[in-house]
Amino acid sequence: MATIDDLSRELGGLRGRRVLVRSDLNVPVDGGTIIDDGRIRAGVPTIRQLADQGTRVVVTAHLGRPDGSPDLDYSLAPVAERLGELLGAEVAFATDSLGESAQATVDSLQDGRVALLENVRFNAGETSKDAAVRGEVADRLATLAEAFVSDGFGVVHRKQASVYDVAQRLPAAMGQLVATEIGVLERLTQAPERPYVVVLGGAKVSDKLGVIDNLLGKADKLVIGGGMAYTFLAAQGYEVGNSLLEKDQLPTCRGYLNRAADQGVEFLLPTDVVITDRFAADAVAEVVRADQIPADRMGLDIGPESAQRFAAVLSDARTVFWNGPMGVFEFEAFASGTRAVAQALTELDGLSVVGGGDSAAAVRLLGFDETAFGHISTGGGASLEYLEGKTLPGIDVLDAGEETFGQRLLKTR
Fold first, then answer.
1. Torsions phi, psi of 118, nearest 5?
2. Which among 204, 254, 318, 364 is annotated as catalytic?
3. Residue 381's CB: how many other CB atoms inside 10 A?
4. Quick one: pLDDT at residue 408?
5. Are 270 and 306 in contact (CB under 8 A)?
6. Catalytic (active site) residue 357
7. Is residue 247 within 8 Å of 224, Cβ to Cβ?
């Protein structure tokens, strides 16, 4: 795949050029206040690299899931302000992504300066399943720039106008973030250093089926926690009370347990859990054996014995991929399991990869130093689909070869 350096060579330098950057700035915002700016910070290196070369940087991104029309609750205005703080220079903000404001903002942009377009998902065509409809959005975005840089790893698994279609209309390259993410994921899938341990948590087994299926023959050990663990416990015949349970996945879970045994893969489930009678921050927590959950209680975290056991398994690993918290880490009474796994990863003598989403949020919420981990991904869904062996459209379109790159270059001249 082409890099920014390749792009610069093909265009004869980037100074004064308008480059459209697809970033992932989808951060949690409450009443205009950004709760976690991790994804914004992750996108800064590529934007700064371009700005430092005198590029006129036009950033496009989305926030949340607006219904294809403007909604101030999903405005990127607070993100523009925070991005400017991180860059140390004001970021011009266009109040639309395809209209008059976008065009005027880009036209007035000076060399080395940055503009952010309003939420691209305010246009229904951005996420359309119809390639022609998406193409109309991509055509309009392409008129704003002379080249495209894909740096929103959290969206490369989506065939959307600002991710996929615009890359077919402009000379395109990957940014630093995408390059780093792909490099790390390749290390996880191509001869990882062993022992290789995969830790999966989160609410649903169904969200992780593809990963489990693909990694059962590659990982040495699978560690299962979070809400998804209760479906595995139920598959073993245990009572799980009011805990999260996907009954339709019970046969699948039994099949995975049998496959793991047949292939010699150690499959670790919680041996104790933290239960309560209601889902609330002030609920009374109690530790019980995993096979002794009362019918009127729910599990919201792995227990201390399980946490110690999981940490011990991780201490001997050379490669670890972790996606999904061990419990409801937002509630202090049910955060110990997630904290134990995160702490163990900071002490790992090898590669530790936090697979984005809630896992990355937990690392920051629980106060861990992000530099203590080998890599914290910005793309939970994209990371999982890559590990499932799926094609990522936003990456595939960049890997089209030199001839196509040259053809796109000619279109802009």
1. -60, 160
2. 204
3. 18
4. 54
5. yes
6. yes
7. no
Token pair, residue 40, equals 């914004």
Mean pLDDT of the chain, nearest integer: 94
How far apart CA 242 and CA 302 sit, in angstroms, is: 15
Asked about 125 being catalytic, the answer comes back as no
Q: Alpha helix locations (H) across 208-303? A: 209-215, 229-235, 250-263
Name the more confident of 405 and 119.
119
Residue of 352, 353, 316, 358 whose CA lies nearest to 335: 358
Q: Are strands 114-117 and 375-376 parallel, antiparallel or unpaired?
A: unpaired
Is 39 a known active-site residue? yes
For residue 46, what pLDDT is reported? Answer: 98
57 — phi, psi (to 5°)? -90, 120
Active site residue 381: yes
Strand segments (E) across 196-313: 196-200, 221-224, 266-268, 272-276, 286-289, 298-302
β partners of residue 50 = none
268-292 exposure pattern, b = at least 16 Cβ within 10 A, e = fewer: bbbebbbbbeeeeeebeeeebebee
Q: Is residue 402 over pLDDT 70? A: no
Kindly name the residue from 357, 379, 380, 394 that is annotated as catalytic. Answer: 357
How does pLDDT run across 272-319, given as a tens digit for each residue?
A: 999 999 999 999 999 999 999 999 999 999 999 999 999 999 999 999
**Order of strands, edge to edge, in the sheet holding 56-60?**
91-94, 114-117, 56-60, 18-22, 147-150, 172-174
Residue of 17, 18, 22, 39 marked active site: 39
Catalytic-labelled residue, pool 355, 381, 394, 408: 381
Residues in contact with 278: Cβ distance below 8 Å, sequence separation at least 6, in sequence order: 298
Between 325 and 412, name the one with better pLDDT. Answer: 325
Evaluate whether 199 touches 320 at the Cβ level (below 8 Å). Answer: yes
Of the candidates 331, 25, 388, the residue with the CA atom closest to the CA atom of residue 200: 388
* pLDDT of residue 255 exceeding 90: yes
